[in-house]
Amino acid sequence: MTFPAVYPVGGDIVRPLKSRRGCKTCKARRVKCGQERPDCRRCSSTGRKCEYANTPNTNNYTFASAPTTISILDLPLSSTPNTVWRERRAFAYYFQHAARYLAGGLDIDFWAGLIPQVCRNEPAVWDAINAISTLFESPEQCLDPVFLRRQNGASFGPSQNQREALIWYSRSLSQMRLQIDRGSADPYTALITCVLYICIETLQGRIEEALQLYKQGVNLILNLRSQVSCTAVPVTTAALLEDTIVPLFVRLGTVALSISGVPTNSLFAPLENNTEYEFTSLVSARNAAVPLIAECMLFQREAQQHFSTVNGGSDPSEKLSDKQRVLQAQLARWRHAYDGFLQTFHRSNLNLPEASTSTVASLLIYHAAAYIIVSTCLTRNERIYDAYLPSFEIIVKQATLVLEASVGPDGMQPPFTFEMGVGLPLFLTVISCRDQRLRREALSLLQKAPPVQGFYKCSPGVAMAEKVLQIEEDLSLQLVREVVYNADGLNTCCNENAIMMGVQSALDLDIRTSIPATKHSPLLHPTRGDHTDEGTKQLPNLIPGKARITFVGIFRPANGLPPTVNENDIAKWNRGPDQTFLAFVKQQCDPISGAWRLVKDYAPIEC
């Protein structure tokens, strides 16, 4: 499905407009005002007195409009009193509840300050806010087309609340398009509505449409930046663009990089090597972490491309190895600076605001996940993850704090978070960490997490993670049964719990040899207080190396089969074209030669 472009291709809506914010002198002369403050360039260069109808408060991002404009809050959008009441109630719910979840702890000024101010004079923003509020409060119905097709004709249309939200959304889109067609669209407002429309689409589970809006928003930003360079945009607009809007899009784009096929864009500036970090606030720490995390995810893509090109039969190039070391060093420097920043509060007996607790934990989570990704992506051996159990432990521990902070008064998580959530790191933990305690804790947290986080939907992630865990545990049981059979000369019937408890001892050699010999290997040092004799360590309950699979991806036959899959591979499951399949690689023992080899396999999942 192609989402209709709300904004012109190339983002070119920043052109000479009928100025509503220009100075009185330029309006009287009928010339384009550059809107520089306190005196515009045209008036200064000609010696004329420069006056504005209203001067915006740059600290609170309040925007000046024509003095005759009536506040949208005082102007009913419908003659039906009940509709007016519902609009006001929706706005109140947004302001009192939804905004704080969208803000994520650090951006409350944008979501609960700037946007409500702008909506007072911009009907498109007002309607978009009310649509978000209603979908946020009533997220009960899935509008995914595949979900609807699989209900065998059952009626699963949108609820009354959702219909009203979609009416507001449609009206907002129409208003925005009309302004653009008339040449009266403020580029600033266009960017804000783009952010809100992304929220609306993701709240409905329409990730592809949200991604298309994201790309349109990036084009708007790039076009607006070009106007800033030639002073066609007011200084206050330029400041908000770079300080608020661009970082927001970069964070959202970082989540998008986890989706296969989503390209990078020029908002991601290349990192400088040997960057030294020093943080004075959580905002500065986050602004430094996000591009670093994005660079790590792009590096993972580069590594995957290498292995797909050489078909897994070649070691990484020296260039890739060098880049890996550079990113590991950058991550270490960031963590050192971040720890130092947090310690300043403890030494000064200061406490970070309660709303910042989630941000502190989230940054630790994404740092740990990025470190795991960078350190492991240049090998196809699943056993390498055993060396990073402390990083997985950080993810699980800090994700627990994040979810405790985001739970609502009703004990439920919000249906959507705009910022990078815990979903992706928890998914990484479930499919890559083979400590069964940690991965099951991670799965439990993933099941409780907000359903949609940025562009990441948790329900498919949960389904994939559960299937990976199930397959590996089944393969572990199969291996242990074979060990019991080989040892006793017959296939002893064992209780499954007893078998799982025996995995460690029965395949102890396989597990011990699976641990990479690195100086940072956590298994060389106690990490949880489980001590035996000095110099030894009781190993965690790990999945045996030969029972581990490599996650490849998912596909639906209705959308076409991957190049390496044929119809016979999936025909045995007797499923419809809308069935989602997990593709993975596993180790298989040849019954004749006894040699182990890698084979591709597929399994249906429900998501």
Q: What key attributes describe this structure?
A:
3-stranded antiparallel beta sheet; 607 residues; mainly alpha; CD2-Gal4; globular; single chain; 3-stranded mixed beta sheet
Descriptive overview:
With 607 residues, this protein is mainly α. The chain has four domains: 21-56, Zn(2)-C6 fungal-type DNA-binding domain (CD2-Gal4, Irregular); 65-256, no CATH class; 282-465, no CATH class; 549-607, no CATH class. The chain is built from 20 helices and six strands. The strands form two sheets. Strands 1-2-3 form a three-stranded mixed sheet. A hairpin with a 2-residue loop joins strand 2 (452-453) and strand 3 (456-457).
β-sheet strand percentage: 5-15%
Distance between the termini: 20 Å
Unreliable residue stretches: 14-19, 54-80, 490-539
How many DSSP helices?
A: 20
Helix-strand pattern = HHHHHHHHHHHHHHEHHEEHHHEHEE
Secondary-structure blueprint:
Layout: H1 24-29, H2 41-46, H3 81-103, H4 108-119, H5 123-137, H6 145-149, H7 160-182, H8 187-203, H9 207-229, H10 235-256, H11 282-310, H12 318-347, H13 357-376, H14 389-406, E1 416-417, H15 423-432, H16 436-448, E2 452-453, E3 456-457, H17 458-488, H18 496-506, H19 508-512, E4 550-555, H20 567-571, E5 580-589, E6 596-605
Parallel strand pairs: 1-2
Antiparallel strand pairs: 2-3, 4-5, 5-6
Helix pairs in contact: 3-4, 3-5, 4-5, 5-7, 5-8, 8-9, 9-10, 10-11, 11-12, 11-13, 12-13, 13-14, 14-16, 15-16, 15-17, 16-17, 17-18
